[in-house]
Structures are given as C-alpha cells and as structure tokens.
Amino acid sequence: MNNFDLTAEEILEKLDGDVHRLRAKPRDRDYDLPSFDHLGSLNDKWNLPPSHRKGPIKRFADFALRKLFLVVKNFMGGIVSSQESYNEKVASQFATVTESIKLESERVDSEVSDLRESIAAVVAKDDVSIDYFKFENKFRGSEEKIMEMQRKYLKYFEGVENVLDIGCGRGEFLRLLKEKGISSKGIDINATFVDHCIKANSNVEFVDANSYLIGLEDDSLDGITAFQVIEHLDKKYLIDLITLCYKKLKKGACLVFETPNPKALSVFVNSFYIDLSHKNPIHPQALLFLMESQGFTEAEIAYTSFVKGDDMLKYGDIDDEAYRKNVDMLNNILYGPQDYAVIVRK
Questions:
Q1: I need a labelling partner for 162 at 20 to 30 A (CA). Which of 17, 87, 127, 236 fits?
Q2: What is the reported pLDDT for 15?
Q3: Would you say 296 and 255 are in contact if contact means Cβ atoms under 8 Å apart?
Q4: pLDDT of 98-143, one tens digit each?
C-alpha cells in the first residue's frame, strides 16, 4: 500500500505510535508530548472518498470505479474513433477537391496559352512576309534615336511601378523606364523583337495585346503605352484593345498611344506606306473619340516629329501677307507633324 491509500485514521494511529516510542526513550529535558488520541474523530467528520475507507465499502468503491473507468474509456474511445473517421473523410474530400482544382487550373492555363498563341498567329499573319527587325533598323531609326524621341513620355509615369508596353519592338521605352527605376513589361508578336529584348535583360513576352490583357486582373496596371502600334490593327481589334486597357488600368493611371499623323499628307508619301504591315491611318480626333467614349479623361493630343524648315515650302521674295498665310496653311497640310500621341487617364 502506498501513502496515497492511507486513511486519516491510519495516519493518526501512525503518529500516535511515534509519540509513544518517543516517550519511552530517556529524555534529558522534562516536558510532555501531547497525545493525538482525541483527533481520531477527524476521520468521521471529514467526508473521505469511499475508496479511501476500509472494509467492504472500499472494495465496492474500487470495483465501481473500475467499471466506471471502463465505461468512460469505451465511450470516449467511440467518440475519438468517430472523430478520426470524420477527419479522414474530410481530409480525403479536401484532397479530391484540391486535385480537381489543380487539374482544372492546368487545363485553363493550357487553353489560355493555346488561345494566346493562336490569336498572336492570326494577328501576325500577313500576305507579305518580311524581316521586320531589319525593316525597323533601316526605316525607323536607331534605338538610341528612338529612345531620345520617347524620353518625353516618361513624365507621365513618374512614381509608378507597373507599366505595360504594347508592341515593345526593340525595347527602347522599356530601357527608358528601367533607367528611371520603373518596373515594366513588354509584349510583342514578333519573335525576333522578343528575343532581342530578352537578350537586353528586358521583361518581354511573345503574345498579342488583347489576349494578354484578358488574362490580367482589372485595375492592375499603373500605365500602358503603345508606340507606332495601332496603325497595324484592324478596327474591331483596336476598339477591343481600348476597352481592355480601360478595364486593366488603375484609377488615375495613364495611357499613351502614339501613331502616324494622317493630317500631314507627307506622312503617306514618306513613311506610312513604306511599312507593308500598316493597315489603317487613324485620325487623332477619331482616336480621341474612342478614348473618351470608353471613359478616359484628361485627354490631350501631343504632336511630334516635326519636319525641318528646309524641307518645307518657302516664301521666296514675296512679301504679301495673304501669300505667306497660304504658304503656312499649305505647309501645315503637307508637312505637319509626322506623328501624334493621344494621352489620357482613367
């Protein structure tokens, strides 16, 4: 029997025996130790558990406790077993759902990828196949020259983080943004341009604009640019592009579309029809109308690429005011700005 099975009566008896043994020993001091006999009634006054009492009550209590323990154990075992079974079923269902979501996600990603490639192929298709990279180098100008021409647009993207350059070409504007510490991405449907940009450490993807924008979250872009791109597009594709740009731009974000200026007739003689992939010249007022109809505001038209004075009509020796006015009007029609950009905000 361990100490935890002793009753109060047994403890008192043990203490009383210790006292008698001490009294029997010789003492050099004359004092009496008290007797604990009168404390025996404590065992009757305290409501001790039956298992701590002697006799049949203790045996019955021990038996009852063992049976109760078995009942509780079996009962709790059933609960635990049911919970474990439930947990296993939930975990199994969760794993099944997770696998289904994964497979569905992979299927959707595959379909989107195929769609992007097919759309890019359709947009890129032309009856005349040319090396457009060589064409750009010959007729558009050097990359350094284009970077200087595009530098004026950086002011519209100060303090932003996520700019998309549609039809990024050789990546001139991407490099300008990088110089300013502005994160950006370019997209193009010309594989040679994409490879060229990747070699220059620019973030570029081979995909057409609309299929790429469809896959983005709404209100996710801080800016969009498209330099010398929209004249290559069918009208419906262009309208869809403007609609998607509006959806994907954040509130207050800027959109810049630059294109040849059909108001200057020399554009058609000198540049527009040189590019066999050009489809539609777009009047600045028509483009502005499309932008404003979609909901864009703060619109402005910036005319660029001015013709040098030496290449325009001269007054000669005639000092007539009406004559000079007519020459100016004719110069404006013939040799006006070769490009323009519509700049708007969402």
A1: 236
A2: 65
A3: yes
A4: 888 888 777 777 766 666 665 555 555 554 567 878 888 888 889 9
Element (H, E) at 116: helix 56-124
Contact 228, 207 (CB under 8 A): no
Distance from the Cα of residue 187 to its chain's centroid: 18
Instruction: Return the structure tokens found at 102.
Output: 């994964």
φ, ψ for residue 47, nearest 5 deg: -85, 80
> Helices 143-150 and 172-179 meet at what angle, rounded to 10?
60
Per residue, what are the HEC states of 253-273? EEEEEEEECCCCCHHHHHCHH
> Which amino acid, one-letter code, is at 19?
V
Instruction: Please tell me whether the overall predicted TM-score, pTM, comes out greater than 0.90 for this model.
Output: no
Spatial separation of the C-alpha atoms in residues 189 and 123, rounded to whole Å: 8
Q: Is residue 315 within 8 Å of residue 323, measured between CB atoms?
A: yes
Whose CA is closest to 181, among 151, 205, 159? 159
Break the chain into its structural domains and give their ranges.
132-345
Distance, CA of 112 to CA of 67 (rounded, Å): 67
Asked if 176 and 182 count as a contact pair (C-beta separation under 8 A), the reply is no
Locate 162 and state its tokens: 């996520």
Q: Provide the 8-state DSSP code for 126.
A: -
Q: Are strands 339-345 and 249-260 parallel, antiparallel or unpaired?
A: antiparallel
Weakly modelled stretches of the chain, pLDDT under 70: 1-16, 18-62, 65, 67, 69, 73, 111-129
Fold that domain 132-345 belongs to in CATH: Rossmann fold (3.40.50)
CA dist 175 and 227 (Å) reads 14
Helix axes 284-294, 235-248, angle to 10 degrees: 40
pLDDT score for 22: 64
